[in-house]
Write a structure and sequence with these properties.
Blueprint lengths: L3 E5 L4 H12 L3 E6 L5 E2 L5 H15 L5 E4 L9 H17 L10 E5 L10 H8 L3 H13 L2 H4 L2 H16 L12 E6 L14 H10 L10 H11 L11 E4 L3 H6 L12 H13 L11
Parallel strand pairs: 1-2, 1-4, 2-3, 4-5, 5-6, 6-7
Helix pairs in contact: 1-9, 2-3, 3-5, 3-7, 4-5, 4-7
The chain binds nicotinamide-adenine-dinucleotide.
Nicotinamide-adenine-dinucleotide binds next to α1.
């Protein structure tokens, strides 16, 4: 079945590879980018985001099956926050109504393994509060302090994006409307975004410490595209709110095996019985100790 997709950042790297893959599979793709595409728009500004949404809706005749919100910047400047968080959220929110007519609507954002790096907490909170003025004021201040301080802008923008996806995905707007909303978290991908960094021994050594990738080394953009394409395909029915790390292992190396520790402070019996009751509707019963 031919589906219609909007793909942002389609002029380069992962977005270009995703658009090409979806087209090869027979789907229709409306590419959005500041450089070139079916819709040329600047996702760093509110006006540009409106133009992007209007342009896609015009091209699609108001009806979409999937959104791949992938455009991004990785510079130590405030615009990185504007594009990566606010541009992505505005596109997903603005195009969501067009998914209502689809039999199998899907949405995905490109986040990053950089979500696992240190972030600027007040900046992340300003993003999550939807306060772009405050977020950009904080970001502009960090940018003015130079590239070392500005380096926190990219991870902060991606942490905010992945947290927004987790917050939004289970709500009536997405899950309640039958729309799986997720993100991908790539490790280092060979695209123009990182070309300079991976061109030198010093750059590669710096990255190896921050982004350990024991499985198969750096990614090609096509390898991320394959996951994005699956997440917006009809096959994805129940993945909800996840940031799926496609990172050669950096998440597991950095976070270790116990990502379930949040559970441990709560008495197990209560959680288990209440959770079972909530999901099955069965009455809560005392757990019987084994043996
Ligand atoms: P890229 O630079 O090759 O492509 C990014 C695209 O986004 C470009 O075509 C660019 O024109 C577009 N874009 C940038 N600013 C824009 C704006 N204001 N309005 C509209 N379009 C804009 O980089 P890529 O590696 O393909 O990046 C794609 C996504 O993957 C980004 O969100 C990036 O943060 C993420 N990512 C990349 C890597 C990596 O190692 N390359 C790792 C993790 C996550």
């Amino acid at each position: 079945m031919t589906r219609t997709y909007a793909v942002t950042g389609s002029a380069s790297g992962i977005g270009q590879a995703t658009a090409a893959l979806l087209r090869r599979r027979g789907h229709r793709v409306i590419g959005v980018d500041v450089r070139s595409g079916d819709v040329v728009a600047d996702l760093s500004t509110p006006r540009g985001r409106e133009e992007a949404v209007e342009g896609v809706l015009d091209e699609a005749g108001g009806r979409l099956d999937g959104i791949v919100a992938n455009a991004g910047l990785a510079l130590p400047v405030a615009a990185t926050v504007a594009v990566n968080h606010f541009g992505t959220v505005a596109l997903l929110d603005g195009l969501r109504p067009a998914l209502a007519c689809s039999r199998a609507p899907r949405a995905v954002a490109t986040s990053s393994m950089a979500t696992l790096m240190p972030v600027h907490a007040p900046l992340v909170e300003a993003c999550l509060a939807g306060d772009e003025d405050l977020a950009l004021a904080i970001a502009t201040d960090l940018e003015a302090q130079g590239p070392e301080a500005g380096a926190v802008l990219y991870p902060s923008s991606k942490r905010a994006l992945s947290r927004w996806v987790r917050r939004e995905a289970p709500t009536s707007r997405w899950a309640g409307a039958g729309i799986p909303l997720n993100a991908v978290g790539p490790g280092i991908v060979r695209t123009p975004m990182v070309a300079d960094m991976i061109a030198t021994d010093a750059g590669r050594a710096g990255l190896a410490a921050a982004v350990p990738m024991p499985l198969n080394g750096y990614l090609e953009p096509e390898q991320v595209a394959a996951l994005l394409a699956w997440l917006v395909s009809e096959e994805n029915t129940h993945v909800c709110g996840q940031t799926i790390y496609v990172d050669g292992g950096s998440d597991v190396v950095l976070r270790g095996d116990d990502v379930w520790a949040w559970h441990d402070a709560v008495p197990t019996t209560t959680v288990t019985a209440a959770a079972i009751a909530a999901t099955t509707g069965a009455p809560v019963r005392e757990a019987v100790p084994a043996g």
